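so my prof wants the structure for this chain in the tokens format not the other one, which i didnt know existed until like an hour ago. anyway here's the sequence
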Amino acid sequence: MKSNSSSSSSSSASANLNPNSNITLNHGAGGRQMQKFINKIIVDKLKNGILERLDDCAVLALENKKRIAMTTDSYVVSPIFFDGGDIGKLAVCGTVNDLSTSGAKPLALSLAFILEEGISLDTIEKIVSSIATTALEAGIKIVTGDTKVVERGKCDQIYINTCGIGLIDDDIHISSYNAKKDDLVFITGPIGNHEIAMLKARKLLDFNFSTISDVAPLNTKVQTLLNKTKKINVIKDPTRGGLASALNEIAEHSNCEIYLFENQIPVDLDVQAVCEIVGLDPLYLANEGKLIIIADPSAKDAIYEIFKDAKHIGHIKNLHHDIIKNTNNKKCGVYLETTSAGIRKIGVLETTQLPRIC
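here's what i got, hopefully its the right format
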């Protein structure tokens, strides 16, 4: 169960759950309100020792002591076709990338459609063809599925739900809880392209820019990396809530301080320009083809070899395993070393920047 511009300066009181209130778009944005909703409404009632870890996929031990990874996701992106991809490609990539955050080798995928009455068969065929092409690229099989049709107006053309399973080798131990002091923090390429591509696809700006979505399956590269080094401690995909929210989740899970170098965080010029015009923060923009990798310094060369656009953007400075979680004096968090030599704390996303991006 995944919880991943609003800046961190907004009052956290707005994120408090009122049992008499209703769901808003902020509850699905990947930020603080979503985290509180998932923890208070869902996890507290269903916790079982696995669910409450809230990694991007669950790791399950089998009777033979082998481990499998399992993840599920739903895709409601609008529009369903955009520069760089479509809802079908997004569904496969999102699922295999979540499996890869545990170091798992994706094995099988379920695929369920909710279709709106009136959607054209040609549209569905294009989406299924895209799914087939992406699954082949990722090396994963679609093995089961389901189709439901709802009345016109009850769904926005098509929604997709997936469930993926993968196998984890015995010597792989990757989790958002495993960051270690002096580990290096990497991002595998420029951030924010997917969310800006969705803004472009919705024609919300009246000028041209070239940004396309970065949506891509990354599992093959992750497996190649793990064949070269086992010194990888954390992998996470910074989707909803972006780089900042994903790193805050890692900092909370690992009880650590993460320090970032502002001048090392890669942002394409078009993305930076759009952010400056409309007031968005690239740190909170969604990505669908990038990974955060936290690793021992000895893994640096291997990461650069496999992920050609990877950048070293920070490090793990301190661990605080002696501090009880969820207390006010907890020091864990994400800190940005700015280009002006200052330090500022980076919080999680407070309110949605652009809804329905995945």
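also thought this was worth mentioning. The first strand starts at residue 58 and ends at 61.
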